[in-house]
Prior knowledge:
Oligomer: single chain
Number of helices: 1
Helix content: under 10%
Low-confidence stretches: none
Amino acid sequence: MTRVIASSVRKGNILEVEGRLYAVLSAESFFPGKGTPTTQIDMRRLSDGVKTSHRYKTTEQVERAFVEDREFSYLYQDGDNFVFMNPENYEQLTVMADVVGDYAPYLQEGMVCQLSIFEENAVGIQLPARIVLEVVETEPAIKNQTASSSYKPAIMNNGVRVMVPPHIAVGTRIVVQTEDGTYVERAKD
């Protein structure tokens, strides 16, 4: 553990507050014209997932725990949990569903992900920036409709709904941004 000033805390940091560990969801500093500058930190308690918010003076000291980022391969989903494997020693690590969060539908067997590890537990995950998915359901293309016009909804093979250009048809493989689930381009394979 190291002590750092509150204004240097960033999203993804792990803090110790009153003997418990918290993952930082957001940190924002406020500098009013009058009064003391403050930093508002929204956090999620690692032990039970409870979200909380704390306000500190920007120069106040907070305890920061250091996590280790390691590469793991995704294997499979086991109930509500997800199982990953360390490619160096083949040890398996079970990650809770609330750590994976909204990224769950994008996980593909064998995908290499970056897991943030603290005391042999995963506290964060980072997926590849882009993945390839296949369109399984969408409206048919309309003749004389240009590619620059409005997008149409499409359902991918992982069940996620993505807005795609009108020329994309069922069976087309496309590249999707994992951060926000947006269409990038047609896959080049």
